[in-house]
Amino acid sequence: MQALILEQQDGKTLASVQSVEENRLPEGNVTVDIDWSSLNYKDALAITGTGKIIRNFPMIPGIDFAGHVHSSEDPRFHPGQQVLLTGWGVGENHWGGLSTQARVNGDWLVPMPKGLDGRKAMIIGTAGFTAMLCVMALEEAGVRPDSGEVVVTGASGGVGSTAVTLLHKLGYQVAAVTGRESTHDYLRSLGANRILGREEFSETRPLEKQVWAGAVDTVGDKVLAKLLAQMNYGGCVAACGLAGGFALPTTVMPFILRNVRLQGVDSVMTPAARRTQAWERLVRDLPESFFSQSATEITLDKAPEYAEKIISNHFQGRALVKIA
């Protein structure tokens, strides 16, 4: 099998495509022949060594993949069946999807939803799955299309671009926040009604003018603090990322004076029933145009190059990795 292997030498992470014996695959009761994977921000952190994502080397990164079952000791899965996987620590502490084959726990797999194939599933991937969970969180908090404008930060990234698309399709007025003027046309094509520069979110007071009914935040730190200060009474922020930092320099005032909700969204350990619900929603709520607008297809050997682009903020949308 061929795989992107991460190794550590003199404190630096080295990434290279290598041939690996299948008997080196980790423990698991289902072996999957991988057709497609993708590059997420977490993958980029791991591949470049920018973030302390990998603790044990060597490691095959790739936190999601889609393929077909090669062999199974789990009665829920049979050879040839189409499956997908996101999260569960795969690509972090268990060899992941940037490989021609993976061996995993059957509990981590999702049967391919009707209406999807492997390529489309990986255009969605962890990023799109997370975006759907964020949208569901806003809905469950009572944020409706007629509640007011919803803002999405980090809008040109994988989570952000999918969130913009979903919210627009569902009838929301969407404001997109980005640090790159070159992405404005792309974001408008996804459905953003207006676009704001990241610099507008650099400074904040404990409370500001009420602007947003809801928000999907992938950035954290000062950007999240600004959003909270600008939320409408009863609004909700679905927070799923920390691209700008893990601090939160805010006060309790938005929460106790405006009844604002800060809803954390985790996609890694999402229970099976919630996963199924989210994937069914993705099949129903994503327009067909999304799959042609948002994906750049690359080969396995290009993964380190594109990981660098993601980290340096020189990439928009989704990097789809063709494995088979």
Automatic annotation (TrEMBL):
Q: Where is the Enoyl reductase (ER) domain?
A: 12-321
Q: Which Pfam families match?
A: ADH_N (PF08240), ADH_zinc_N (PF00107)
Cross-referenced InterPro entries: Acrylyl-CoA_reductase_AcuI (IPR014188), ADH-like_C (IPR013149), ADH-like_N (IPR013154), ER (IPR020843), GroES-like_sf (IPR011032), NAD(P)-bd_dom_sf (IPR036291), Zn-ADH-like_protein (IPR051397)
Renumbered to this chain, the signal peptide range is: none
* PANTHER family named among the record's database cross-references: ACRYLYL-COA REDUCTASE ACUI-RELATED (PTHR43677:SF1), SHORT-CHAIN DEHYDROGENASE/REDUCTASE (PTHR43677)
User: What is the protein's name according to its record?
Assistant: Oxidoreductase
